[in-house]
Design brief:
With 102 residues, the protein is of the alpha/beta class. It is built from 4 helices and 5 strands; from the N terminus they run βαβαβαβαβ. Strands 4-3-2-1-5 form a 5-stranded parallel β-sheet. One of its GO terms (biological process) is tRNA wobble position uridine thiolation.
């Protein structure tokens, strides 16, 4: 069974993304939405921690939230995948359950 984890808080204001990554199992996916998209930026303080889980855990970023914050997708950690709202729906249906990290 796999889980889609959604995180919406900035990783620089609390430890939600870090906690999420620590609880993910191989085959899970993490979708960063709202201010959590900052956690997928190459060179950020979270980059090494996020990269350490990639391969076991898939990383997705909501494209609309990147654009709303003026972030170019080219600044993301290599391997992070941008998805639109339709991709968000696909991820929900592809996983057995969804866990929101608040």
């Amino acid at each position: 069974m796999s889980t889609l984890h959604t995180v919406n808080k900035s990783p620089f204001g609390n430890a939600t993304l870090s906690s999420c990554l620590g609880h993910c199992l191989p085959g899970d996916a993490v979708l960063l939405i709202e201010d959590a998209v900052y956690g997928a930026l190459e060179g950020s303080a979270m980059a090494d921690q996020v990269k350490a889980r990639m391969g076991e855990v898939a990383l997705y970023v909501l494209d609309g939230d990147l654009k709303a914050r003026g972030i170019d997708a080219g600044k993301l950690i290599s391997g992070a995948k941008c998805v639109g709202y339709d991709g968000f729906v696909d991820l929900v249906t592809e996983h057995d359950r969804t866990q929101s990290w608040l």
